[in-house]
Amino acid sequence: MSADFAFLYAALATYVAAGAIALAGLARERPRERAMLGLLAAALVLHGLALALRWQRTGHGPFITMHEILSSNIWSLALVFTLAAWRYRPVRAAAAVVMPILFVMMAWMVSTDPAAGHLPATYRTLWLYVHVSLGKVFLGSVVVAVGLAGVILLRRFTTGLPWLAALPADARLENLAFRFMVVGFLFESLMLVAGAVWAQDAWGRYWAWDPLETWAFVTWLTLAGFLHARASLKLAPAAGAAMIMAVFVVAFLTFFGVPFVSMAPHKGAI
Amino acid sequence: MRLERLASLNLTLAGLLTLAVSVAVYAASKVPSPALVVAPLALLLVNLLAAVATNRVFRANLPLMLFHCALLAIVALAAAGRLTQFKGQVELAEGEVFEGDVGEVEAGPLHRNALDRVRFVNDGFTIRYAAGLKRAETRNAIRIFDAQGGVTPLVIGDTEPLRAYGYRFYTSPNKGFSLVFRWFPRNGSAVRGTVNLPAYPANEHRQALEWGLPAGGPRIWTQLQFDKPPLDADADTSFRKPGQHRVVLRVGERRWELAPGEQVTLDGGVLAYEGLSTWMGYTVFSDWTMPWLIAACILAVASLGWHFGRRFAATPWDAA
Fold first, then answer.
1. Per-residue pLDDT tens for B256-273?
2. Which of A93, A112, A123, A223: CA 20 to 30 A from B229?
3. Closest residue, chain B, to A85 (C-alpha)
């Protein structure tokens, strides 16, 4: 087994420990927030080492196979969430929603073929890194908002969860989630622009309605629709939270679902 | 009052959701109708113009106005691009000069063709493959001729196109072998010509093509035959011509096999096979709106960031 896999599985175990603390913390009066953040930070370091070692071994970044794409996205989503949770305390309880999403991605990742892929010549460009980085900040911001939205919905439909009960009011949580959605919208817009610049260089056209382009644009419209709905309909926090969940479903399917059904050269998901 | 109803934010929301659904349907349709996208866009356009005309608060919010104006500019530029852009394909054999002829053209009705000003010669290419014939770098040597008689050598390929007179020439995955013939008609002077066989290695087992000899000569079916494939699928390799090969010619029931340097007498003249060369396929593209589109997109994102940044700065995120 390559060293990168050893670090990867150590990271996965640490993520699971952090997630377990988050889920167990729901029932505690004094959840172990610092322990959870510490474990998340440790998992990120281990996972970062795993990605770096794989990068060195394969000669290219984690952009090609579904295994690499899921691995790098788990890392980036966890990174954005950890930074947000470290900076904004109400976000920490959202780990109980975000970590199960990451668990699903981890289970999916370990079921994929970990063999290295071939880096196409059109990926040897700075725009790859620009496009991918912007996409990761976009999805990371949306995931933080989803965590907060999940907390609002959990509070509505469950009782006896002291960690959630101690959080600020739904309206404040929804407002915070809205801010992360705005950040996500800005980064998705930039991601689309960077992707168009790259597509022009790679395929001689900046937009061709291929499935990934189409669904990325549909995601953008859905997010724009959410921002407009919030301004025009004066949504209740639970309704806003439900819309955030809907936007996330579209974004998640675009990132990880479309490459499975598309035979277009633009497989995306990077 | 009617204008204010047209400016409704609820109408904006309906327009956005309709556009999202329309875009998905448009992309999934086998024969998509542009009206699917244009109709909800037109609705949003009317909605936005009505909002600008009637909503003072909106007008007073400079970053939000800038954002929406940038969106308008993006739609207008995309429409202008559709009317004026150019797409096409061209194949050039090694040593062949591009002289403005392009096939599979999709040009907007207002496109002003300036392709006859572009002159370059394909000097051949190298393509590296990883094991499994996975294509890596493409490097295509060309020389471009300017109007003053100057010649500039360039290497293009992959994400680096040739840029000339508003056009971009991208190397494409289509490339292959060319059969080089010289036709000596019984009456007239000799003509040199190339037959660009189907793309290789995508059509490894279909290296044949029918073509018509110039000046009313007979139609000939040609096929390239080689014993050993030139590209090793199991190892790192690069594009190369087969070493030992022959060309099969058929006219009706008659059949010949020629090696390089051999010739055959046909009705109307003599056909000599000079040897094997390569051809490269290029995607030709032109759209003057591209830099303006990028500028409008960046203005849109920057102004929206300004709008929300100003709004969020009023309350700390912790106390949001």
1. 999 999 999 988 889 999
2. A123
3. B318
The tokens describing B40, both together, are 């909800």
- Per-residue pLDDT at A266: 54
Strand stretches in B79-166, DSSP E: 86-93, 97-98, 103-107, 119-130, 134-145, 151-156, 162-164
Q: How far is B17 from chain A (nearest CA, A)?
A: 7
Please, which pLDDT band fits residue A261 given cuts at 50, 70 and 90? Answer: low
Instruction: Supply the mean pLDDT for chain B.
Output: 91
Tokens (6 digits) for A251: 């974004």
How many Cβ atoms are within 10 Å of B320's Cβ, its own excluded?
18
Residue in chain B closest to A265 (alpha carbons) equals B173
What per-residue confidence (pLDDT) applies to A263?
Answer: 52
The residue-averaged pLDDT of A175-191 equals 97
pLDDT of A75-110, one tens digit each? 999 999 999 999 999 999 999 999 999 999 999 999
* Closest residue, chain B, to A207 (C-alpha): B78
Q: What is the DSSP string of chain A?
A: --HHHHHHHHHHHHHHHHHHHHHHHTT-SS--HHHHHHHHHHHHHHHHHHHHHHHHHHSS-S-SSHHHHHHHHHHHHHHHHHHHHHH-GGGGGGHHHHHHHHHHHHHHHHTS--------GGG-SHHHHHHHHHHHHHHHHHHHHHHHHHHHHHHHH----HHHHTSPPHHHHHHHHHHHHHHHHHHHHHHHHHHHHHHHHHHS-S----HHHHHHHHHHHHHHHHHHHHHHH---HHHHHHHHHHHHHHHHHHHHTHHHH--SS-----
Q: What is the CA radius of gyration of chain A?
A: 19
Residue-level pLDDT at B1: 60
Q: Which of A221, A217, A218 is nearest to A207 (CA)?
A: A217
Taking one residue from A and the other from B, the number of pairs with CB-CB distance under 8 angstroms is 112
Closest alpha carbon within chain A to B137 = A121
Position A176 confidence tier, pLDDT thresholds 50, 70, 90: very high
Question: What residue in A sits closest to B318 (Cα-Cα)?
Answer: A88
- Testing the interface with B: which of A221, A243, A258, A266 to mutate, by most B Cβ within 10 A? A221
Of B17, B138, B304, which has the smallest distance from its Cβ to A121's Cβ?
B138
Decide if A121 and B298 are in contact by the 8 Å CB cutoff: no
Closest approach of B274 to chain A, Cα-based (Å): 34
CA distance B10 to chain A (A): 6
Nearest Cα to Cα of residue A117 among B172, B260, B130, B76 = B130
- pLDDT band at A269; cut points 50, 70, 90: very low
Set of chain A residues whose Cβ sits within 8 Å of the Cβ of B157: 121
Of A103 and A255, more confident? A103
Pairing outcome for strands B167-185 and B162-164:
antiparallel
Yes or no, beta carbons of A121 and B294 under 8 Å apart? no
Least Cα distance to A140 among A252, A259, A13 occurs for A252
> At residue A24, does pLDDT exceed 80?
yes
Contact state of A121 with B318 under an 8 Å Cβ cutoff: no
Q: Which of A206, A249, A254 to mutate to test the interface with B (most CBs of B within 10 A)?
A: A206
